[in-house]
Amino acid sequence: MTSGLQRSATVSEALVNGSWWLSTSRSRNRIITLLKESLPDPLPISQSEEEDEYKWKIGANTPKPSFSSADTWEHLYNTHPEVDWHQSVWFKGAIQKHTFITWLTKLNRLSTKERMHYWNPQVWSFFLSRLHLVPPNLLDDAIGWLKAPTRNKNVNLIAKLAFQATLYGIWKERNTRIHSNVNRPASSIIAEIQLVIE
Hints:
The chain has helices spanning 11-14, 30-38, 42-47, 69-76, 86-89, 96-106, 112-131, 139-145, 153-180, 186-197; strands at residues 15-16, 19-20. It is mostly helical. The longest helix has 28 residues, at 153-180. Residues 67-123 form the Reverse transcriptase zinc-binding domain.
């Protein structure tokens, strides 16, 4: 696609008889149309004696001298308000596949929730007893509690890792039972989780 303007052109060269060079274009190309709608009033520019400079303007924000991919992303895509439990799900040192399953569980996108109570005394409590912690009984409350269960950062990290590994282990065990009809004892899942978080 060509706009009819050379890449090296200055702003003054983009102005023809006091109007933008695109003003007479009848092109239906979306890019050309967007350009025409985005260009500012040419009159103050044509009368200005200041040097040309590049600025990035995103939406109704003030133009900036540098481009920000983060600002562009936020403008192009709808951003949701930050949730208070994000630090319990997304944190440094997390295992990505465990984080993903925890996130889906929190959003109630998995069938793991109803199984959690059955496995809670056998799997999750095994790790809690080693850490000497007593979390809330409900899954949603436990996720919020995991933001800072103690003042010890190392214990907090281990608790988060153990929690996410437990959810992942339950989800994996559930799929194994459904698809291959093989049941493992809780001790096998605990041993597997211990290997993962060590």
